[in-house]
Amino acid sequence: MKRGNQKGFTLVEIMIVVAIIALLAAIAIPNLLRARISANDALAKSTLRTLSTSSETYATANSGNYPGAETSLTGATPPYVNTSYCNQTIAGFTYGCNLGMGGYTFTATPVTAGTTGTTTYTMTTGGILTP
């Protein structure tokens, strides 16, 4: 029996399309993950710079005394920094703050090294960033 004018795709054609999609996904997904890690790293560095700049500005306005707590930065009018970062997890990094009248140390630690970020970043008094 001859089938007349049947329309549709054969199993082989569908398997080829699925294989092509799988190949494209295998190429694209690692690149997307690397881009996300790079973006998280850049955001962590930027956040540490923001915290450092706000602390240095606070010290300039307060006779060289650095803030003793994050509330000194967020609670001022106008605030030196609008968002509370200390002991928060944002974009794959957990932020730690050690504030004192003589200086500060801010850290950004990836939640999962190699997945959410590459390394722990530290910003110390004077705006010194170390990976």
Features:
43% helix, five-stranded antiparallel beta sheet, 5 strands, 2 helices, 131 residues, alpha+beta, 19% strand
Explain what you see:
The chain is α+β, with helices and mostly antiparallel strands and 131 residues long. The protein is 43% helix and 19% strand. The chain has one domain. The chain is built from two helices and five strands. It has a five-stranded antiparallel sheet with strand order 1-2-3-4-5, covered by helices on one side. The protein starts with 10 loop residues before the first helix and ends with a strand.
Based on secondary structure, the structural category is alpha+beta
Helix content: 40-55%
Number of strands: 5
Please count the helical segments.
2
User: Can you tell me the residue ranges where pLDDT is under 50 for at least 5 consecutive residues?
Assistant: none
Q: What percent of residues are in strands?
A: 15-25%
Average pLDDT metric: 92
Sketch the major β-sheet.
5 strands, antiparallel
Sheet with the most strands: spatial strand order: 1-2-3-4-5
Taking the alpha carbons of the first and last residues, their distance comes to 74 Å
Shape: rod-shaped
Q: Write down the secondary-structure element order.
A: HHEEEEE
Which value, in Å, is the CA radius of gyration?
A: 25 Å
How many domains, in number, for the residues? 1
